[in-house]
Amino acid sequence: MRSTQEILRETKAAAPALALASPERKNALLLSIADSLMAHEASILAANARDIEAAREKLGPVMIDRLTLTPARIAAIAEGVREVAALPDPVGKELSRVTRPNGLVIRKVSVPLGVIAMIYESRPNVTSDAAALALKAGSAMVLRGGKEAFASNAAIVEAIHDGLQKAGFPPALVSLVEDRTRQSAMDLMTAAGFIDLLIPRGSAGLIRACVENAKVPCIQTGTGICHIYADASADIDQALAIIDNAKTSRPSVCNAMEVLLVHRDIAAALLPRLKERLVDARQARGLTPVEFRLDARAAQYIPGKLAGKNDFDTEFLDYILAVAVVDSLEEALAHIARHSTGHSEAILTRDETAAERFTRAVDSAAVYVNASTRFTDGGEFGLGCEMGISTQKLHARGPMGLEELTTYKYVVMGNGQVR
Amino acid sequence: MRSTQEILRETKAAAPALALASPERKNALLLSIADSLMAHEASILAANARDIEAAREKLGPVMIDRLTLTPARIAAIAEGVREVAALPDPVGKELSRVTRPNGLVIRKVSVPLGVIAMIYESRPNVTSDAAALALKAGSAMVLRGGKEAFASNAAIVEAIHDGLQKAGFPPALVSLVEDRTRQSAMDLMTAAGFIDLLIPRGSAGLIRACVENAKVPCIQTGTGICHIYADASADIDQALAIIDNAKTSRPSVCNAMEVLLVHRDIAAALLPRLKERLVDARQARGLTPVEFRLDARAAQYIPGKLAGKNDFDTEFLDYILAVAVVDSLEEALAHIARHSTGHSEAILTRDETAAERFTRAVDSAAVYVNASTRFTDGGEFGLGCEMGISTQKLHARGPMGLEELTTYKYVVMGNGQVR
User: B282 and B321 share a domain?
Assistant: First the structure.
């Protein structure tokens, strides 16, 4: 086993070869990797079978499904890499240009970060998705996947190495951390000087560990306690459709809603119909009904469990919805300021003044008027891809696309200027 | 004494009052602060006299001068605040806008960070400069100055409080940390959830302590081991003028050069004339001569101390210059990659291919062709101001102006869209 430090040294040393490559060479590289993933289908499937065999007793059927690769899924992974090749190149863009009175021409130009590292869990498709985005952005990539997917990830990275070599690039541009203990995550967090950006993608515990321990630049992703506030003037039918979608279309993801705040003036009209739609109608159709966690006022309108102490601070990621009734928009704003994780919040209203006040006052990556929070996503925002959703304010906020995976430098042309 | 935690809670609670203020109200606030600084002249001078009295035995004359305030300096401080008011407002700018096929209108809008904190040393003018920039950018500011300037800083912050109150804003928008022990710096570094951006400005030791300990988003500033590479084709007269300026115009600042790399083909023509200019001519004019730290090859051309083990990794901030002779541009690039702190580097050349290779390959915040590294500065770059010079790659790189003190959010307008 190579140590994580050794891997980081090699990756850092390899990075300049890619940083200076032309867009055409980078795209040829990505197509070479896509071909190689297809050519390695058999070995990737065999490795995946070993992972599944080892995980069968430990993981539930949903997690096993997330872990499982098939010929169709490998083809989709390869296609994803080809789609990244087709995106506009984020490197070498002139972001600004000024000519100063002394004749200096100062250009601000987008350049690669250098080495990007990611710590992530289960799904092996993330391995090639992330590597493809980093390479397109001109950066080397160090991957530290979940231990359940280790054999699958290793086989995918082997295919990527093959693709790198065939395109004339050093294989060390994409590295998989070999140490499967928790120590290797800590090694990445503390590798100052070797990692230009660390992205933790996974549980709240992982994100917290990064905040606590990271000595390298780090972007927190993903934790989403998303609120929807139904204002006094909300269109009830539209509100029901949006809340249903935000809660039940995919409750396990970070842009799913967790908390509904309802203005007292529409609580009587909205909440009983919401209960009918999210509980009774779903039950009748054989779907998992939504469980409520109600504050005392919401409980006056619909049946359900009373909210406990932490229910307004929990990312349920499940068919559970916390509901509170508020007296005013201001009370909703105060609640959100106290409990939000800064991911996505929405107001449902027909009142433009309320919409304006809400979008200005809510300090989150994405703030919606009359739409589902589920749209916070690189593809839905038109970025063409996504490396994660930042919930911090520095460098990147919300969905991170290729631009957010670059930095810039100033290139200054003179003819003898001194100060 | 109020605890640092208590101060942070109050500042965070005050921040939204400013974040939502109009550009006009923010500018009126800054003018009110400028007036108040003038009105408090007597109390600021009295406090400054106490600081100087206490520091007289501990600090040398240069540091005492940096610490000293006069009526003229206070007027300049107030004028600096007025100049910040006159800059364009960085908040509320539409950075991008797309209408998606489903009708969602997604706007990316610049917004305030929230709470900015700064840890800095000596010069009391930084106190009001930094506060003015933060307020203009819509953020509250927590200041932790050097203990030598504590009374001066406290008097300046009292004047700022007066200006805040007269303009109808809560004084807690600008806070001075009261605990003067090292613990308060650590308290700021670890105040996750209370500080959106921490800027350490000062010694390399302070920056290192932030990298080691910070649990809040942090931008490293200032350490500059700046290189100039004199290529084989450099114009010798121009090279001499640029090197002289970069080394001697103000050696104590981070954009001053520390290391000269000379192509072997011009070493014989350049180095003796450089020694004449930086040593003999300066001595003849009664100026401090530059001391050399020479590698073995440079020592064949000029007299001077041989470079020790660390001389190519030292930010001298003094009339000292490390000099090495290299065989090629590639050797210069390799040296810079190994020893640079990523601040500013320059190539002196008449060869466009060499200039292009250098500006692409050098991974620093500012890369110059035929100009002095001393231009890396917010004012010189046309930003109108500067909060420090970032040597990291995330969020801000090089001089940080008002734009770099903001973040953004996505505001999404829908009419019932679900996913």
Answer: yes
Give dist(CA A137, CA A84) in Å, integer.
10
With residue A395 as reference, give the H or E element that holds it.
Answer: none
Using a CB-CB distance cutoff of 8 angstroms, which residues of chain A are in contact with residue B368?
Answer: 412-414
The residue in chain B having the minimum alpha-carbon distance to the alpha carbon of residue A244 is: B418
The whole-angstrom separation of Cα A136 and Cα A81 is: 10
User: Checking phi first, is residue B114 left (phi over 0); if not, alpha (psi -120 to 50) or beta?
Assistant: left
* Chain B residues in contact with A412 (beta carbon < 8 A): 366-369, 371, 375
- When scoring B356, B412, B415 by the number of chain A Cβ atoms within 10 A, the one with the most, hence best to mutate, is B412
- Quickly list DSSP for B82-148: HHHHHSPP-SS-EEEEEE-TTS-EEEEEEEE-SEEEEE--S-THHHHHHHHHHHHTT-EEEEE--GG
In chain A, residues with a C-beta closer than 8 Å to the C-beta of B217 are: 392-394
Q: Give the pLDDT confidence of B247-269 residue by residue, as tens digits.
A: 999 998 999 999 999 999 999 99
pLDDT at B246 (0 to 100): 98
B227's enclosing H/E stretch is: strand B226-230
Specify the amino acid at residue A109. Answer: V
* Rounded CA separation A93/A87 (Å): 14
Does residue A132 sit in the same domain as residue A210?
A: yes
Number of compact structural domains in chain B: 2
Gap between the Cα atoms of A5 and B262, Å rounded: 34
Percentage of chain A exceeding pLDDT 90: 89
What pLDDT sits at residue B123? 85
Q: Does any domain span residue A145? A: yes
Contact yes or no for A375 and B417 at CB 8 A = yes
- Domain assignment present for residue A263? The answer is yes
- The CA distance from B273 to the nearest CA of chain A, in Å, is 17
Domain extent for A108: 4-219+400-413
Interface test with B, best of A18, A100, A363 (most B CBs within 10 A): A363
B349 lies in the same domain as B244:
yes
Residues of chain A contacting residue B413, judged by C-beta atoms under 8 Å apart: 355, 368-371
Q: Kindly tell me if the per-residue pLDDT of B122 is higher than 80.
A: no
ipTM over 0.85: yes
Same domain, A46 and A140: yes
Q: What is the pLDDT of residues B74-105, one digit of tens each?
A: 999 999 999 999 999 999 999 999 999 999 99
Q: Based on the domain organization, do B268 and B318 belong to the same domain?
A: yes
Whole-number Å distance between alpha carbons of B58 and B348: 42
Same domain, B206 and B246: no
Domain annotation covers residue A208: yes
